[in-house]
Amino acid sequence: MSITLADALKVSHAALAGAAARGISKASVVVTDPGGHVRCALRTDGQGIFGVKTATAKAVSALGFNRPTLALTPLFSDQATAAISGATGGDFAPLGGGVVITDAAGTIVGAAAISGGLPEADHEVIVAAVEAQGFKTIA
């Protein structure tokens, strides 16, 4: 099962609203299916060219390691990060802001990520956005 486009858009809009409420005016949000394929990607006006790519890499990283990307940060040296990023075609970003999305039964339905704020803020924003839509995240 995969997150629907309607739910992916709801998560994305909630994340951008949450970011704005924290004073993060330039952000990108990506929601993927369980295979890491993008269901939707939104970018605020003025967000840089790397925002969507970074958010996509965060979402895919969360799926690949089955945990929030904030938890990945202390696990990898710069050298390991570079090696994994190269091996995955750039789809590895161990920076806070990416989470795995599950339904009420615990089935993975996708991943979501935001890029634009500091890692801890991005993590808090995306978790709140996912949970506000009735989904859970893997801790």
Write the layout of secondary structure elements.
Blueprint: H1 5-21, E1 28-32, E2 38-43, H2 51-65, H3 69-72, H4 78-87, E3 98-102, E4 108-115, H5 119-132, E5 136-137
Helix pairs in contact: 1-5
Summarize the structure in words:
With 139 residues, this protein is an alpha+beta fold. The protein has a single domain, classed as Haem-degrading domain (Beta-Lactamase, 2-Layer Sandwich). The chain has helices at 5-21, 51-65, 69-72, 78-87, 119-132; strands at 28-32, 38-43, 98-102, 108-115, 136-137. Strands 2-1-4-3-5 form a five-stranded antiparallel beta sheet, with helices on both faces. The longest helix is centred in the N-terminal third of the chain and has 17 residues, at 5-21. The chain is globular and about 35 Å long. The model has no long low-confidence stretch (mean pLDDT 96).
What's the domain count?
1
Radius of gyration: 13 Å
Order of helices and strands: HEEHHHEEHE
If classified by CATH, what would the architecture be? 2-Layer Sandwich
Task: Give the class from helix and strand content and strand pairing.
Answer: alpha+beta
How many beta-strand runs? Answer: 5
Which blocks of ≥5 consecutive residues have pLDDT under 50? none
The chain-level mean pLDDT equals: 96
Which sheet architecture does the biggest sheet show? 5 strands, antiparallel
CATH class: Alpha Beta
Instruction: State the shape.
Output: globular
- Multimeric state: single chain
**Which strand order do you get reading across the main beta sheet?**
2-1-4-3-5
Question: What is the CA–CA distance across the termini?
Answer: 20 Å
Helical amount: 40-55%
Number of helices: 5
User: How large is the share of residues in beta strands?
Assistant: 15-25%
In the CATH hierarchy, the third-tier topology is known as Beta-Lactamase
* Fourth CATH level, the homologous superfamily: Haem-degrading domain
